[in-house]
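debug: dumping io for the single-chain case to check the tokenizer round-trip. Nothing else runs in this session.
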Amino acid sequence: MRRGVGWFACAGLLLGGVALLALYGVGVATASDRVEAGSEYGSVAAFGLVGVLAGGALAVLLGRANARRPLRFPPIWLGAIIFACAVGLGFVVHLYEWVVFAAPALVVAALLGLGIVIGRFVTRGLPGRRADARVVLISLLWGMTGAVALTLMLQMAAGLSLLAGVVGGVALADPELLEGAGLRDLLDEIADDPSGGGLESLINTPTVAFGLMAMIAVIAPLTEELTKAFGATLVVRGHAFTLYNAFLGGAMGGLGFALVENVGYVMADPVTWPQLMLLRAPVSIIHVAAAALVAVGWYLQRTRGGLALLWFYLAAVIVHGGWNALFGALLLVSSGALDGEDPSVAASLLSLVLVGAMGAVLLGSFSWVLMNARRLAAAVPPGRVGVGAEHGALALAGTP
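debug: decoded output
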């Protein structure tokens, strides 16, 4: 039954990926301006490639004679070279118009290299650096597919509710914005000139600013941390039920989610995607750390009872929400630069403080993952690992 469901999911991923690639090809081939069409449909091609890769990985897992055979990630240097070459080519080919046609493949290649680096980093402490293949692949695929789909549904529902609240808030707190054609004129102004002062004016409207911050700093982490680690709870059972595998499954779920999210962000502009990729790549560790926190909390809940899952889930939401809140605040502080004005000294100093705080969150997340990748793996004895064998490592699974 499970294998049947797995092959069905595999076929869906492969067919969906091929369909998106075909849609990209048809859209570009039939367009009057192929370069512009390639830019508009670039994300379709990138997601199509992701679907094909995810389906291929699932097919490999289902077709393995021994699904429990350990998996070893390629070395970090190889992943770094793949990432650097893909991004480097992105910088070079953007000098030519056909960059939009190469962008989807280069983006996926760069993310593949990033996945290798993080995967090897997480498993580096294991004996022989070999991890449970089912834990790695199923959790990774869940993060790339199920977690993304479920998160989007939850966020759409929450977003609609928030939109209704924002409209009501605007009516109470900023009634002049709704008077006559004021809001319509403002939206028309933004559509005609996004770099003008209209966007800044809308963003700085108290209720709109509050709604945006609530969406990225509260709703996003609450929904994403609810879904990313779910794959680990499905596969970390029986022989694989160990603290390290819970940590590993959560980390892989977060990595899969981060890779697909990065596709959406960097393909927003297929011409300048290399710069966006360099900015987004380090942020992947936030997703890895937060999802691993939730999975570790689930394991401790199962083995020790209490409210471990709740506390670790809240810790993950705080880490993720803190990063998003700092980033959102940085956008709000720097929004004055959208109209070409020089930022004030206070705004510049505050921006530096926010950037420093974001760096601290990144460093804390990286340190937590590094500590547990080494010490929890060191507690894994050869052969079958029992639950009691890792009790001495439980104290290491603290928050960043």
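debug: round-trip ok. The CA atoms of residues 200 and 335 lie 6 Å apart.
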